[in-house]
Amino acid sequence: MAFVDKIDAAAEPRISMASAGDYLALLKPRVMSLVIFTAVVGLLLAPGGINPFVGFVSLLAIAVGAGASGALNMWYDADIDARMARTRTRPIPAGRVTPNEALSFGLILSVLSVAILGLASNWVAGGLLAFTIFFYAVIYTMWLKRWTVENIVIGGAAGALPPVVAWAAVTGSVGIESVTLFLIIFMWTPPHFWALALLKTEDYRRVGVPMLPVVAGEAVTARRILIYSILLAPVGVAPAFLGMASVAYGIVAAGLGAIMIARSIPIVRSRGLDRVAARRLFGYSLFYLFLVFVALLVDRGLDTLGLF
Description:
By secondary structure, this protein is mainly α. Helices cover 79% and strands 0% of the residues. It has two domains: 1-174, Orthogonal Bundle (Tetracycline Repressor, domain 2), CATH 1.10.357; 176-308, Four Helix Bundle (Hemerythrin (Met), subunit A).
C-alpha cells in the first residue's frame, strides 16, 4: 500500500524547480565516489587486462548505475528524509525536484547503465549491475531499511558489489578474488554505519527506522561494532593468503585492522554513549577502507614492476 501511495505521489503534477546541481545530488555523489574507487580497484586487479576505452565506459556505467540507485532511494525515502535533520535539505523533501522527476531519472539511468555495461563489456557484468541496482533500490530501500534491525548488515551487500561488477567486466566471471573484495566492504559496512547511527539515533527514532541503536540500544550497538571490527581484520588480510597480494600488504592490512579494533574499544567501554569515540571511528573507517584498497593497488603495481 505504501508503495502504491508513493507511485501516486510521484504522478502528482508539480512545477519543477530543479537545477543540474539538484539532479547531481540525487546521484549521491559521495557514495558514487566510493563506488567508483572500489570499482577501479576491482578493474585493475582483475587478470587479463581490459581495453582502456572499454574500461572507462565500464566504470562510467557502474558509476551511473550507483547514481541511479541513489536517485531511486531518495525517491522512495522522501517521506523520512523530510523529517531527518541530515537529509531534509535533499532535493525532493526541499521541493526542488518532484517525486515523478526523481523516479523517472532513476529508472532511465538504471536501464541505460545496465545496457551500456552489457554492450561495452559483457552481460555477466551487466546482469550483476542490474542485480546491484535492484538490491539497493528494492531489497534494501523498500524492505530491509524499514522492517529489520539487520538492514545495514544485509543491505551492505549492495555497496560491496561494485568491485565484483568491475572484475566481471574484465573477466566475464566472478572469482574468489572478487568475492574477497566484496567481503572486505561487506564486513566493513556494519561498524561504519553503526558508528554513524550512534550519532544520529534520535533522527532514526523519530522516523521509525529500526536501526540497531534504536531497537537494541547503544550498548548492544557498541558490542556489535567491536565484533564486526574483529571479524573485519582477518578479512582485510585475506588477499595476502589467497595470493592476491604480498606479505607486505598483509602486514599493512593487519595494522589497519588493529587500529579499527582499537577505535571500537572506547565505544564499548562507554556503552555506546561516547559520541566523540563514535565520530572518530566513523572517520577512521573511511580511512581504513581507502587505505586497504590503495594498498592492494600499490602492491599490484610493485609486483608488476618485479619489486615483490
